[in-house]
Predict the structure.
Amino acid sequence: MIIIMQSGATTKQIASVVTRIKELGYGAHLSEGQERTIIGVVGEDRVLMEGEEFTLLDGVERTMRVTSPYKLASRDFHPANTLVPLNGSVVGDIKLTLIAGPCSVENRTQMLETAHAVKEAGATALRGGAYKPRSSPYSFQGLGEEGLELLAEAREATGLPIVTEVMDPALVPLVCKYADVLQIGARNMQNYTLLNAVGESQHTVLLKRGLMSTMEELLMSAEYILAHGNNRIMLCERGIRTFETYTRNTFDINAIPVLKLKTHLPILADPSHATGKREYVAAASKAAIAAGADGLIIEVHCNPEKALSDGAQSLRPEQFAKLVTDLRRIAEAVDRTL
Ligand code: PEP
Ligand code: MN
């Protein structure tokens, strides 16, 4: 249930509604809009009988049942777009977010060269995995903390904020020390222990849609993080598994307008994992921006033939630079900037 306060409700009135919610054993989450405050009442699933009682409290305009299973992630609770701060800019605003870099951090030269190249081309953040979720235990698993140190060095050299995956709840504090954004990979979208750990960290999170997950499941996973009071979340459509084999995954373009409608959280698209082949990355990127995505996360490698992971879907720096130029025109057509 959400409680919509009257515009002009006082802090005292809001506080007494919150007190009553807590007395009844629920959690209260505030969404402070420009006009009015909305209070989300969350707790274990049981029928809230107190709706009527709340309408009698001072400053309350009305109460509303949120019918979706996610509450704090829904637009009902937070009608305006959530803007996620990132290194002086914001994700979810007019200016698009462009995260680029290699799939994995491999070595110092690779990381620094790629970081400079993507920065030059217009990237606003740098990606690189130090802990890699690989299908095979015999594939390159990432450099671990050494990889995080290389990312920190690349941030120092370029000023780009760092996006990197965390797979283990126990490693959240360590990854937080180095990363500006914690990536939850597709395979871990429903790792609830991990979601709770990143929620508690209050660190910015990039939450990728699971390989076989519905949009509702993605939003329920975001809800775990939001329930800890952490609303610094960007969602990411990265393709889902279907019967199709000509691409690595099937890019669910529908997810972008649907999620924009259902939630206030920003949505990015990952055309690299969504297609799996570099020749399709440009088209999928343009489609995502045209559909209303708030940004992209794209894999770029200086020598993709030698990449230790995802070489086939990694753009060369010059391809990435050309794509950014082309995307500026698409962005303009949908009233965004890049
Ligand atoms: C990645 O970003 O390199 C990655 C492993 O992505 P996903 O979790 O979407 O497969
Ligand atoms: Mn990858």
Summary: The CA atoms of residues 16 and 57 lie 8 Å apart. The pocket of manganese (II) ion (ligand 2) is lined by residues 103, 273, 299, 309-310 (CB under 6 Å). The two ends are 38 Å apart (CA to CA).
